[in-house]
Amino acid sequence: MSVQMDKFIENLREQYEMLEDQVVIDAATKFKELEDWDSLVALSVIAMADEEYRVKISGDDIRSVTTVRELHDLVRERIGVNH
């Protein structure tokens, strides 16, 4: 399964219901520092990983990463995609 960064960012952005369009998310974004981050968004990210990529990530996994790239790499690692 391919985990393209652009599509991953698009999927991640969808988890933030109130995020304004002008807010830029890229690989270096510290996603937990975005204005709307809360426990519901964290649960949505966990669900997104399961639905879109068929991988299980936990709250501990989310706490262990900081940037979108790190989260992306975690998902890639779980599905066995080499860099």
Automatic annotation (TrEMBL):
Origin: domain of life: Bacteria
Annotated source species: Neolewinella antarctica
Annotated ranges, domain Carrier: 2-79
Gene3D superfamilies reported in the protein's UniProt record: ACP-like (1.10.1200.10)
Coiled coil region boundaries: none
UniProt xrefs under SUPFAM superfamilies: ACP-like
Entry protein name: Acyl carrier protein
InterPro entries membership: ACP-like_sf, PP-bd_ACP
